[in-house]
Amino acid sequence: MARQGSSELMRNATGFLGSLYNSLAGQAPAYSIAGGAALIMGSAYAAAPLAMLLTLLGVLAVVYSIFVLARKYPHAASFYAYVTNTINARTGFVNGIVYAVFYSIVGVGSVAIAFAYLGTEGIYAVTGHVINPLILLPIPIVLALIPAVLGVRPSVRTEMTLTSIEIAVLLIFVILSFIANTSRISLFPFTVQGTFAVTPSGILTALSGGLIFAITYFMGFEVSTQISEEVRDPRKSVPTSTLWATVFMGILYILVTYAILLNIGYTQNAINNFVSLAEGMGPNPVYTLIRHYLGTAGLLLFAISVMISVFGCYLATLNATARMLYGMARDGLLPTWLAETHPRYKSPHKALYLSTVVAVLTIVLAYMAAYISGYIKPLELTYNAMEDAYAIDSLYYVLSLILVAAGALKLTRWSGRIAIAIGMAILAITFYYSIVSIWYLTILVASIALTIVVSYAINPRIRKIKITICPYC
């Protein structure tokens, strides 16, 4: 039962298609390609499509965990509910806080910073002028609240429109690239020779590095699990849409990565040049390739689609964050006012407001950290603030997924357990190599320790918890 003062989310607000697009928006394809293509190629080189293919197979093993759990436990605070029901209530509480507070709210902040940085890059690519990225920073923070408060239906409709545009632009780029470079089409990018490494350990290092960056492309695939209670037939729609959204994104990422290689060439020098351009303060080379095929108008559309992609990711993440807080509050583990929904739109409006406020605080902290590190110019300051927020954010994300996958082991047979174990191994590798700073590790350990302490402080409530699985799903 919901606690006094709380109310239900809107039933049957969307269906399979809405859940599918919500997951697509969470993965933000144009955002991922513009920001991450060079990172994968910098490690895997011409074998970047192979690294992306291996990543997709590994991520699908993780998605299988979500598939199993989403069918059984539809809940607004999904990652808390999954672990609570399969492991225990205390671990579920810890995972809920890790996902909702440390990953998701920090994620909202990091995506807002990315909007400012990539928006500035796009404007520079189109006009040749560099603006102050801080001008763009408030746009997603303010505008995303409008569809979010209006409910899942307006949010999903916004995501469907915006995500369709960015996917269409990427597919046009792929098609034109294949047509223009037919003679270059080869299986070389799907072989280990594409890494240019000569030893087994070198090949493994190159592909592992590519995997670490490639797996971040899929971050956000799970956001539809948090709107389970607002989806028609959630036990079927949510897990199936999450699976197909991930498969589609994986294929799209492979195609776009391959198309970029077709254009720049398979040589090590050509790829190094591409990576150097991406890491510099000049035009992003992905924008240059888009201009080559689609002209100035196409470049403008792509620049807009990247901003659209980041905005859609921000909206999907904000909605997921608020529903995690709402679901845990409804079960008595957070302040009850977070479980209140808007009297007209049935959105968790107070949780949305709190998520936004805390996300703004994380943005301020990220900029302060970048400033203390010696970055003063607005563009460099924004890039490094984004990098810091994203780095710590990804650690919480992977840790939360590992706990979810561990819970799913209890609901599967041996064949399923093997698949999940493979996914957990890939997550563990990603987690290990993602710790690039002792400060990130210190923050991670301290925050988890604090969460465990809090779990014992509210021990009576955790011991008495009766989780509210969606009664009408």
From TrEMBL:
<keyword id="KW-0472">Membrane</keyword>
<keyword id="KW-1133">Transmembrane helix</keyword>
<dbReference type="InterPro" id="IPR004841">
    <property type="entry name" value="AA-permease/SLC12A_dom"/>
</dbReference>
<feature type="transmembrane region" description="Helical">
    <location>
        <begin position="351"/>
        <end position="374"/>
    </location>
</feature>
<keyword id="KW-0812">Transmembrane</keyword>
<feature type="transmembrane region" description="Helical">
    <location>
        <begin position="97"/>
        <end position="118"/>
    </location>
</feature>
<feature type="transmembrane region" description="Helical">
    <location>
        <begin position="162"/>
        <end position="180"/>
    </location>
</feature>
<dbReference type="Pfam" id="PF00324">
    <property type="entry name" value="AA_permease"/>
</dbReference>
<feature type="transmembrane region" description="Helical">
    <location>
        <begin position="394"/>
        <end position="411"/>
    </location>
</feature>
<feature type="transmembrane region" description="Helical">
    <location>
        <begin position="418"/>
        <end position="435"/>
    </location>
</feature>
<dbReference type="GO" id="GO:0055085">
    <property type="term" value="P:transmembrane transport"/>
</dbReference>
<dbReference type="InterPro" id="IPR050367">
    <property type="entry name" value="APC_superfamily"/>
</dbReference>
<feature type="transmembrane region" description="Helical">
    <location>
        <begin position="130"/>
        <end position="150"/>
    </location>
</feature>
<feature type="domain" description="Amino acid permease/ SLC12A">
    <location>
        <begin position="38"/>
        <end position="451"/>
    </location>
</feature>
<dbReference type="GO" id="GO:0016020">
    <property type="term" value="C:membrane"/>
</dbReference>
<feature type="transmembrane region" description="Helical">
    <location>
        <begin position="242"/>
        <end position="266"/>
    </location>
</feature>
<feature type="transmembrane region" description="Helical">
    <location>
        <begin position="47"/>
        <end position="70"/>
    </location>
</feature>
<feature type="transmembrane region" description="Helical">
    <location>
        <begin position="293"/>
        <end position="318"/>
    </location>
</feature>
<protein>
    <submittedName>
        <fullName>Amino acid permease-associated region</fullName>
    </submittedName>
</protein>
<feature type="transmembrane region" description="Helical">
    <location>
        <begin position="20"/>
        <end position="41"/>
    </location>
</feature>
<feature type="transmembrane region" description="Helical">
    <location>
        <begin position="200"/>
        <end position="221"/>
    </location>
</feature>
<feature type="transmembrane region" description="Helical">
    <location>
        <begin position="441"/>
        <end position="458"/>
    </location>
</feature>
